[in-house]
From TrEMBL:
GO terms for cellular component: plasma membrane. It comes from Magnetospirillum fulvum MGU-K5. Residues 9-143 form the DUF218 domain. Residues 181-207 are annotated as: Disordered. This is DUF218 domain-containing protein. Pfam families: DUF218. Gene3D superfamilies: HUPs (3.40.50.620). Residues 198-207 have a biased composition (Basic and acidic residues). InterPro entries: Cell_Envelope_Assoc, DUF218, Rossmann-like_a/b/a_fold.
Length: 207
């Protein structure tokens, strides 16, 4: 592969809370900053911002897009999925965009605590992602334990929901009439372009 070709087609950046004034929360800002670093350094060709209106009427993905544009990232390198409200929704919403662009090599950007659950969700729903953790500022011991504690509670419930969604998709296909609402959910294994990226694979349960 020529050195001028980025090693990953896109970084999928998962949303976080939008501030009351419509600006980015610290979590949102650091995830976008991580993705911009990846794009500027040539590690990814495009960025896909994923997140809808969760706790604020303005979609998280739009706030993230504006941050990337303000940082000088070219508009043609930025894609937006602005309807999802949780991690499963992120995966389902990104699926048709990834397919339409023909992306095969994907990075998933989120906070360290959230990354294991996000990787599990995306991979089980048909998107062969590797993970990059957006580094958090130094945390106190209590904050660290609370963050991982939330994820320990969220992960089993997420597994149940993901596997139920996969089962619904398989049953619908076997019946010969899959519903449109679960069509984007793939159960295919990672494609030949998949590379499991090194480094920390760990996002707080903010949803």
């Amino acid at each position: 592969m020529p050195s001028s070709v980025p090693p990953f087609d896109a970084a999928i950046v998962l949303g976080a809370s939008v501030a009351l004034d419509g600006g980015p929360s610290p979590a949102l800002a650091r995830r976008v900053a991580c993705a911009i670093d990846l794009a500027v350094s040539g590690h990814v060709a495009a960025v896909l911002m994923s997140g809808g209106p969760v706790r604020h009427p303005r979609p998280e993905a739009e706030v993230m897009r504006d941050l990337a544009l303000a940082a000088g990232l070219a508009p043609e390198r930025i894609f937006v999925e602005a309807a999802s409200r949780n991690t499963i929704g992120n995966a389902v919403g990104c699926h048709p965009i990834v397919a339409a662009q023909g992306w095969r090599r994907l990075l998933l950007v989120t906070d360290p605590h959230h990354l294991p659950r996000a990787l599990y969700t995306f991979r089980r729903l048909g998107l062969p992602v590797s993970g990059v953790a957006a580094r958090r500022p130094e945390q106190s011991g209590l904050e660290w334990w609370l963050g991982w504690g939330r994820e320990m509670l969220a992960f089993p419930w997420a597994m149940i929901r993901v596997e139920r969604l996969r089962l619904m998709s398989v049953l619908a296909h076997s019946a010969g009439g899959a519903g449109d609402h679960i069509q984007p959910v793939g159960v295919s294994p990672p494609g030949p372009g998949f590379v499991d990226g090194p480094g920390e694979k760990s996002r707080p349960a903010q949803r």
